[in-house]
Design goal:
Length: about 675
């Protein structure tokens, strides 16, 4: 197989496999067959881009039945990994060999579906049921050595084809071990395993539709003869394939990849070499950022003005690594290797040779400017100067240097060593090669880099502000924090706005608002309760009290009636008539303004495409991937519906609605032309 870049089993490949099998079966000189790949990996499975085409004939299950029922032995030489239908192809072969450093997997569940070409029926026939179930329900890639029973042998890449042909020749004339001939039967243990997996999954994969169907399909492998099990798998596959969740997750698969695509920059633009990085500030963010580079072998020097702060920062990093080692995610040797890559200094002079500096200091313009002025003096020409600012004007920061073309924003999300999202903020004068280097660097440190423009809050924080505003206002109007949080939690986010605010610290929002009084001057109603709480020292979980109360050592929020008393008092002062508010209104008022702000962001060219906003919101704020992200969700429910509801609240909420619920012109335009955000090109 040689269908670049990943041997997706497209129509051409499926047809090619059928032709090759028929040719081999018809040719008396052919005694056995080996299927392998000329590319770096065996196959990435079905061609996801074909799913929406509808014309999937010849369907993969039929191709694999032809392979499995072959009268001549078929050997799969799995090189470099096999996923989804690619692994299913190998399972339909009679013998399998693999190269030794790769992984295989059945990641269909991440696409809102399940292995639909026999994977749920053949894998449990070849490896232990619990391993098979875990692979299918979690979609996690598995090292071939962990399921070595699947392979005749696991060899060096250079040995693979030779060994596969040898196995094929030895198989000639022998009884063909078709996987489907292996008998399975259910048992109380299998029943218990499926039940237990169901319970675990409903917690871990809350709200997802496909995982439970994966379990049902595997269960059928133990309860039905192979042919009926295959039929049942097909029914469950079709059931999943036609859900909004499958459409959303398949959208997201490509959204994530296109987000990392380079903007219109000359192809021959050279990358700048990033051999050593400096981080200014060894606090939680600075330390987390530093870890990303140490994790991939790039040396980092951390700068703090005080030795004590520096020592504390390096100690925190070590503790993080030691925790990973305790969980078995790192060996002690890896911990030491990474720590060796991390050095500290209290002098800017030590940064004269670094290729990239990322400042992660206090979110205050005057502090940022001091740092960049100092960097401008000591850093070598061509060094990239990056700010981790989450809201401040990057252009204003760049203007305090003599090298605006070398300044860019690298907005990491906390915890920076965990969160996949990296907003790459392009300043007005940021050079193309700096942008290209930053986008490439995101991939190197295993982040999903999304290019955004300069405005308050860029994309993510600009949108989260309208969401938080509505939550605060709804509490004044009559909803309780726990009601609002439950609506959002049930919608699929990991937590509601008030639990999130307490977790992050209410003082963060408070401080940002203090620096933007003009913005909230129009109507401070939505943050008046939060401001009073912060001024009373109730800054959230870290203080044991914020919107909620927290028992010592516990993170579970306890509603506090006194907060509602504040809301009632403030509502009275502001002349807001409190009322019962429906869950639906809460959902619409928290999510639709988010979408509306995304539409404005697209109109202003702050994001390159709607799916980038989806990637930012899923990876940065936990928007449920089975809804595809806010803009995909709008396309799914219909832009017209979002517009209609924005207009409803624009009039229903009096002055407040008039100001905050003005529909974006893009929302109007798309609704009027019956178009979608997916089709919008900035
Ligand atoms: N279909 C179409 N395009 C694919 C693809 C696929 N399965 N996999 C990758 N691509 C594209 C991807 O969009 C990108 O394109 C390029 O290939 C490189 O991908 C019946 C129905 C295999 C681990 O879910 O997990 O089989 O951006 O950047 O980092 O049961 O690709 O360059 O234009 O990810 O080296 C199940 C999906 C399908 C595996 C390699 N299979 N792919 O990672 O490359 S459903 C999957 C991956 C199925 C059957 C069912 C990864 C990879 P572009 P990449 P990578």
């Amino acid at each position: 197989m040689a269908n670049k870049p990943v041997n997706a089993l497209s129509k051409a490949i499926r047809t090619g496999l059928i032709d090759a099998m028929n040719m081999a079966l018809a040719n008396d000189n052919v005694e056995a067959i080996v299927i392998t790949s000329e590319l770096a990996l065996f196959s990435a499975g079905a061609d996801i881009s074909e799913f929406s085409s509808g014309d999937l004939a010849p369907i993969l299950p039929d191709v694999l039945t032809l392979v499995e029922n072959s009268s001549k032995p078929v050997v799969a030489a799995v090189n470099g990994g096999a996923f989804g239908g690619g692994l299913e192809l190998a399972l339909a072969c009679h013998y399998r060999l693999s190269t030794n450093h790769n992984k295989v997997g059945l990641p269909e569940v991440h696409l809102g579906i399940l292995p639909g070409a026999g994977g749920t029926q053949r894998l449990p026939r070849l490896i232990a049921p619990e391993k098979a179930l875990q692979m299918i329900v979690t979609g996690a890639p598995t090292s071939v050595k962990a399921i070595s029973e699947l392979f005749v042998s696991i060899v060096e890449p250079s040995e693979l084809l030779v060994q596969a042909i040898k196995v094929a020749k030895q198989a000639v004339g022998k009884v063909i071990p078709a996987t489907s001939l292996i008998k399975l039967s259910s048992s109380p243990e299998i029943e218990a395993l499926c039940e237990q997996t169901k319970v675990q999954t409903s917690a871990k994969a809350r709200g997802f539709f496909a995982p439970a169907k994966c379990i049902e399909a595997v269960k059928a492998a133990f309860e039905l003869p192979f042919a009926q099990g295959l039929k049942r798998e097909g029914e469950l596959f079709e059931e999943c394939m036609h859900t909004p969740q499958a459409r959303a997750q398949q959208h997201f698969f490509f959204a994530e990849r296109v987000a990392g695509a380079l903007p219109q920059i000359a192809k021959d633009t050279a990358l700048r070499d990033i051999k050593q990085v400096a981080i200014i500030g060894a606090g939680t963010m600075g330390g987390g950022i530093a870890m990303n580079f140490a994790n991939v072998g790039i040396p980092v020097v951390l700068l703090e003005l005080e030795q004590a702060a520096l020592d504390k920062g390096l100690e925190l990093i070590r503790r993080n690594y030691e925790n990973s080692a305790k969980k078995g995610k790192l060996t002690q040797e890896q911990v030491e290797q990474r720590m060796e890559l991390l050095t500290g200094t209290t002098s800017y002079d030590d940064l004269s040779e670094v290729d990239l500096v990322i400042e992660a200091v206090f979110e205050k313009m005057s502090v940022k400017k001091q740092v960049f002025e100092a960097l401008d003096k000591v850093c070598k020409p061509g060094a990239i100067l990056a700010s981790n600012t989450s809201t401040l004007d990057l252009d204003e920061i760049a203007q305090c240097t003599s090298r605006e073309q070398d300044v860019i924003g690298l907005h990491f999300f906390s915890p920076a060593n965990v969160m996949k999202l990296l907003e790459i903020v392009q300043g007005a004068k940021t050079a193309d090669d700096v942008i290209k280097t930053a986008m490439h660097l995101a991939k190197t440190i295993k982040k999903v880099g999304v290019l955004v423009g300069v405005c308050f809050g860029f994309v993510g924080n600009r949108m989260i502000e309208v969401y938080g505003r509505e939550a605060g206002r709804l509490m004044l109007e009559g909803a309780t924090p726990q009601q609002i949080d439950k609506v959002i939690y049930d919608f699929g986010l990991p937590m509601g706005p008030f639990t999130m605010g307490d977790m992050a610290g209410l003082d963060i929002g408070y401080f940002v608002r203090q620096s933007r009084k003009e913005f909230i001057s129009h109507d401070p109603s939505y943050c008046t309760v939060a401001d009073e709480l912060v001024e009373a020292g109730r800054v959230g979980l870290k203080a044991g009290k914020g919107v909620y109360l927290y028992d010592a050592g516990s993170r579970s929020p306890i509603p506090d009636p006194s907060v509602l008393d504040i809301a009632k008092r403030k509502a009275k002062e502001l002349g807001i008539q409190r009322r019962d508010i429906s869950d639906q209104e809460i959902l619409e008022r928290c999510i639709y303004p988010l979408i509306n702000e995304g539409a404005n962001i697209l109109l202003e060219g702050i994001a390159q495409r709607a799916s980038d906003i989806d990637v930012i919101y899923v990876y940065g704020y936990g928007f449920p991937v089975y809804r595809g992200g806010p803009m995909k969700f709008a396309d799914e429910i219909g832009v017209k519906e979002v517009l209609a509801r924005m207009k409803h609240y624009e009039t229903a909420l009096g002055e407040y609605g008039k100001h905050w619920f003005t529909p974006s012109p893009l929302l109007e335009e798309l609704a009027q032309k019956q178009q979608t955000f997916a089709g919008f090109k900035a």
